[in-house]
Amino acid sequence: MEQKQRFINLAQSGRFTVSELSEEFGITRKTGHKWLLRYAGGGMKGLEERSRAPKKVSNRTSEEVERLMAARCREEGHAEEELWKGIRRGWKFGAEDFVERLVGMGNGGVRNAAIHLSEALEETMEEKARGIVREFLKTRGMGLDEFRRLRKGHPDKIALAAELRKSTMMTMSWIAEELNAGVPQTLWRALWKNGKKR
After folding, report:
1. Between the chain's N and C termini, which has fewer beta carbons within 10 Å?
2. Quick check: is 77 in a domain?
3. b/e per residue, 46-64, with b = 16+ CB within 10 A?
4. How many domains does the chain have?
5. Does a structural domain hold residue 51?
6. What is the structure's pLDDT at 35?
7. What average pLDDT does this structure show over 136-151?
8. Percent of the chain at pLDDT above 90?
9. Most confidently predicted of 20-24, 59-63, 96-100, 134-138
10. Confidence band of 83 (pLDDT split at 50, 70, 90)
11. Among 15, 30, 46, which residue terminates a domain?
12. How far apart are CA 64 and CA 168, in angstroms?
């Protein structure tokens, strides 16, 4: 607050510009002008720090809606049901031993499930990529072995690599190896140069 007051006093003296003072105080000109405007509008009280929290939260449930929901639960007898209490404390639906079975899957069953899901997605993406390769080769009238024997920077290899990058999530390492197109960095460079020519 003391810094702001010194800034205002020096600005009002007329000896310095806002730019000079802002530089001296280590603030932006925008902040300097903001302080001057706040001082002009509310004096020293206007320079006090303001909360950055929003004044209104648009997606907050209104107190009236919360009150109506609580009243409806009481009316319908849901407020005291054991089922709802269990859900509020730490819900779990399913068989009694469900959580134990998950834990028994080894080292955090949920984590293992995520790994398996990731592996399944990777396999699906690889199938899609191989399908794109088959279609591309069909249009060129050649087999994969013949295609792989083309030189590493062949325009067809670059075009297919670009299509695979656009249509799948396969890594550049996988694409370079699958197409026998050299190391990933070389393929990246070729794709970049190809993109600049367009």
Report:
1. C
2. no
3. ebeeeeeeeeeeeeeeeee
4. 2
5. no
6. 84
7. 91
8. 12
9. 134-138
10. low
11. 46
12. 49
pLDDT of residue 190: 86
User: What number is the average pLDDT over the span 135-146?
Assistant: 92
Alpha carbons 191 and 198: distance in angstroms, whole number: 11
Task: Determine the structural domain holding residue 139 and report its residue range.
Answer: 118-197
| DSSP secondary structure letters along the chain | -HHHHHHHHHHHHTSS-HHHHHHHHT--HHHHHHHHHHHHHHHHHHTS----S-S--TTSPPHHHHHHHHHHHHHHT-TT-HHHHHHHHH---S-TTHHHHHHHTSS-HHHHHHHHHHHHHHHHHHHHHHHHHHHHHHHHT--HHHHHTS-TT-HHHHHHHHHHHHH----HHHHHHHHT---HHHHHHHHHHHHHH-
CA atoms lying within 13 Å on the CB side of residue 179: 35
Angle at 189 between CA 139 and CA 192, to 5 degrees: 70
The answer to the question of residue 92 being in a domain is no
* Residues 81, 87: Cα–Cα separation, whole Å: 10
Task: Confirm whether pTM is higher than 0.70.
Answer: no
How high is the pLDDT of residue 98?
64
In this structure, is residue 55 part of a structural domain? no
